[in-house]
Design goal:
Layout (H helix, E strand, L loop, with lengths): L1 E14 L3 H10 L2 E15 L4 E5 L6 H8 L7 E6 L8 H7 E5 L11 H11 L4 H15 L14 H13 L5 E5 L7 H18 L2 E6 L2 H5 L4 E6 L2 E7 H8 L2 E8 L10 H5 L6 E5 L3 E7 L5 H11 L2 E8 L2 H11 L6
Parallel strand pairs: 3-7, 3-8, 5-6, 6-7
Antiparallel strand pairs: 1-2, 1-4, 8-9, 10-12, 10-13, 11-12
Helix pairs in contact: 5-6
The structure holds adenosine-5'-diphosphate and magnesium ion.
Magnesium ion binds next to helix 2.
Length: about 325
């Protein structure tokens, strides 16, 4: 369904000295710098799958989505979606895909929401009976009823996102690209949107690529993820695999009651951590210890810490994606092997 091979994108960035003089110089004698945003990404997605496409900010996710949707032309490499090249025959291609960018909206700001849908119906040449059926389904999963007559600018961020997803699905595309659809939303709203995406996927076996920097987003929706960092693939496989192998880092954060000699806390010697398994930061008030919980269980770390020093507050957090990626790089392992 989706085939991506060795995709690359370079941007030319003009280095400009500050001020008017710099602007003139840049105009006549431009000093370019090439930024490689996507550096040889490959993956395949079978029909009907929801692929979690993840990576930290700046990894190149949006640039990949823009190439897959035909907004940007790749510097090299190829992507074939549904037997089509996104930059060729665009008029036909856009009828087969739906796209949502979490940071932007395709809705008409000042018009009531239903007007946007009426315009899209014309653009996509959707028949009346098909349109009615589709609206009824989208209404049900995205609960648009309460605000379909309101101008888009009056919608909350969560309502707007639901409205945007409906707009991208109106013509019943075979593939749906969602770039950070839950960014900036609170937990309950995020959860509603996840459920709606699941229902849309189940209804017509719509293939979905869902971009996010939040691992929790896709845990419920997709079993498989492609993870990228600095424009390169770092992982392609099941989330459960990633977590059991690399997701065992926990972070213990505590606030000291008084000035303490932290030498008393010799985690490394006590638990026999290797270099990669422990990372301690201390700014005099907050102490952060990231550690591998498969070597020292959280309970043991807590009781050892509390037996050595007095703390005012203490908390434990899960490893986040950034942490997992940091470890992947440090170990210089290829987890796909
Ligand atoms: N139009 C552009 N011109 C120059 N650099 C860009 C442009 N778009 C993105 N980049 C750079 O490419 C890299 C990847 O960006 P992006 O694809 O937006 O990452 P992500 O979506 O994973 O946060 C970043 O370093 C970003 O600054
Ligand atoms: Mg992005």
């Amino acid at each position: 369904m989706i085939h991506v091979e060795n995709l690359r994108k370079e941007f030319k960035k003009v280095n400009k000295e500050p001020g008017l003089k710099g602007s003139f110089k840049a105009l006549f004698k431009p000093d370019y710098e090439i930024v490689t945003a996507v550096d040889g990404i490959s993956f395949d997605v079978p029909k009907g799958e929801i692929l979690g496409f993840i990576g930290p900010n700046g990894a190149g996710k949006s640039t990949v989505i823009k190439m897959l949707t035909g907004i940007l032309t790749p510097t090299s490499g190829e992507c074939i979606i549904n037997d089509r090249n996104p930059t060729k025959n665009r008029k036909q291609y856009v009828k087969e895909i739906g796209v949502v960018f979490g940071q932007r909206t395709q809705l008409w700001w000042d018009l009531p929401l239903r007007e946007t849908y009426a315009v899209l119906k014309e653009i996509y040449e959707i028949e009346e009976s098909e349109y009615k059926k589709r609206m009824a389904f989208l209404n049900e999963v995205l609960e648009l009823d309460g605000f379909i007559s309101s101008p888009v600018r009056t919608l909350s961020l969560g309502q707007r996102m639901r409205a945007d997803i409906a707009a991208s699905m109106l013509h019943n595309p075979k593939v749906l690209f969602l770039d950070e659809p839950t960014i900036g939303l609170d937990v309950v709203v995020k959860d509603n949107i996840r459920k709606a995406i699941g229902k849309i996927n189940a209804e017509d076996q719509t293939t979905v690529i869902l971009t996010t920097h939040d691992l929790a987003d896709i845990e419920l929706l997709s079993k498989r993820i492609v993870m990228i960092d600095k424009g390169k693939n770092v992982f392609d496989g099941k989330i459960s695999e990633l977590k059991s192998k690399y997701g065992q880092m926990r972070e213990l954060v505590f606030v000291l009651e008084k000035t303490e000699d932290l030498k008393k806390l010799d985690y490394k010697a006590h638990f026999k951590f290797r270099d990669d398994d422990l990372h301690v930061e201390n700014d005099g008030v907050f102490v952060k210890a990231r550690f591998n919980s498969s070597i020292a269980p959280v309970a043991d770390m807590l009781s050892y810490t509390l037996s050595k020093i007095t703390v005012k507050d203490i908390s434990v957090k899960d490893a986040d994606i950034e942490e997992i990626i940091r470890r992947l790089y440090k170990q210089e392992v290829d987890v796909n092997e």
